[in-house]
Specification:
Layout (H helix, E strand, L loop, with lengths): L5 E5 L8 E5 L8 E10 L2 H9 L13 E9 L11 E5 L2 H4 L10 E5 L3 E3 L6 H4 L3 H12 L5 E3 L2 E2 L18 E6 L4 H12 L3 E6 L4 H6 L4 E4 L5 H11 L3 E7 L4 H14 L2 E5 L13 E5 L8 H6 L1 H7 L8 E6 L3 H11 L5 E5 L1
Parallel strand pairs: 10-11, 10-13, 11-12, 13-14, 14-15, 16-17
Antiparallel strand pairs: 1-2, 3-4, 3-6, 3-17, 4-5, 5-7, 8-9
Helix pairs in contact: 4-5, 7-8
Bound molecules: NADP nicotinamide-adenine-dinucleotide phosphate.
NADP nicotinamide-adenine-dinucleotide phosphate binds next to α1, α5, β11 and α8.
């Protein structure tokens, strides 16, 4: 059998377009899989990495986080996968820095503990919207001890339960999710709902139905001039204990609303996708932090939840994929489309 050829979309230097070229065919170390990618998805992080080189540890670089494809090689000590299995997974070049761990290639190495079998009924194009957002969502909800997201910035520890495959009894806890139509916000809505929480989401009016489809009990318009008042009022009327806000957008505009909501509710957690406002700008009873979406807290979800939840429809492949093109050459235009902004979609390139 001839050795397959690997190709990748390389970042040669910050701010330059990706260049498609040969890449070494990776091999699976202990606990790893090599995936022959059939689809990859784009995340805003990829745009930042391309533009500024942030988080790039080795040049040239292959980055990207979301893959779906067939298991090509199974490393030592991996029991859940066989060669030929259909799988989705979270590629972790972000933390490892190794090029073989970047998604933007024909073959990528992923840790088996950040992968799940993709049921036959679900296409690679649909399944690839899940991995990075899923791991981010678990980090939002279930971290039990604060850690360090970046120097001087703590990770938030809401300590909430993992999503369950069972129907959960009516909730005793309420979480506000700012950015209910974003990839991370909508996935967190799905997992929080599956963990028995009640979600009050904030999204554009055109995405109310989408956010509800992900499980939000109530959705408020991000452009409502009385937003903070309406959200805090809705939380107060809820019978559940208020656990805090997850801000999946994290801009000065959303922080102003977060602070107003928390002020009216007597404090709580503020979990953000970017560094939160400095403590001096927050009420003393607000516990703020930034998530960092590579964390083994997600392992039980990858190992025990993802496949059966996809199979039963409890975990939906949302936001829906928008296929930008086919082949590694299309990744550059997908990144440009992501920079231009998207609404309740995940950009995907098929390979
Ligand atoms: N720290 C981490 O570990 C981590 C992990 C993953 C992502 N992130 C960051 O999290 C952010 C979100 O990522 P993503 O992939 O989820 O983004 P995304 O899906 O590309 O976000 C687009 C969505 O955000 C919504 N949105 C934009 N501004 C909004 C606002 N002011 N209020 C409410 N909704 C708003 C848009 O809604 P409309 O349709 O109304 O425009 C759109 O649906 C990015 O900045 C990303 O870099 C951080």
């Amino acid at each position: 059998m001839s050795t397959p050829r690997n190709l990748a979309a390389w970042l040669i230097k910050a701010g330059s377009p990706l260049q498609v070229g040969d890449a070494p065919l990776p091999t699976a170390g202990p606990g790893e899989l090599v995936i022959k990618n059939a689809a990859i998805a784009i995340n805003p992080l990829d745009c930042h990495m391309q533009d500024s080189g942030v988080f790039v540890q080795q040049w040239p670089s292959i980055f990207g986080c979301d893959i779906a494809g067939e298991v090509h090689e199974v490393g030592k000590d991996v029991e859940r996968f066989r060669r030929g299995n259909r799988a989705i997974g979270h590629a972790i070049n972000l933390t490892s820095g190794r090029s073989q761990d970047g998604a933007f290639a024909l073959y990528t190495v992923i840790p088996a503990k950040k992968a799940a079998i993709l049921p036959d009924e679900i296409s690679f194009t649909d399944g690839v919207v899940v991995p990075f957002a899923l791991e981010a969502a678990v980090c939002v909800l279930s971290l039990k001890e604060p850690g360090v997201a970046m120097p001087g910035v703590a990770t938030p520890a809401l300590g909430l339960p993992y999503p369950s495959l069972q129907e959960m009894p009516s909730s005793s806890k309420t979480l506000v999710i700012y950015g209910g139509s974003s990839s991370v916000g909508s996935m967190t809505t799905q997992l929080a709902t599956a963990a028995g929480l009640r979600v009050i989401a904030i999204a554009g009016a055109h995405n109310f139905e989408f956010s509800k489809r992900c499980g939000a009990a109530q959705v408020f318009d991000r452009n409502d001039i009385s937003l903070a008042h309406k959200v805090s009022d809705a939380v107060r009327k809820d019978s559940g204990e208020f656990v805090g806000i997850f801000d999946a957008i994290a801009t000065p505009e959303t922080y102003a609303h977060d602070i107003a909501i928390l002020d009216q509710l007597g404090g709580g957690h503020l979990a953000c996708v970017h560094p939160p406002p400095p403590a001096t700008d927050l009420p003393a009873n607000v516990n703020a932090g930034m998530i960092f979406a590579v964390n083994d807290i997600a392992t039980p979800v990858w190992e025990g939840y993802v496949t059966p939840a996809l199979q039963s429809g409890k975990l939906q492949c949302l936001p829906p994929p928008f296929v930008v093109g086919n082949g590694l050459e299309s990744i550059q235009s997908a990144l440009e489309k992501c920079k231009a902004g998207i609404s309740a979609l995940k950009l995907v390139v098929e390979l």
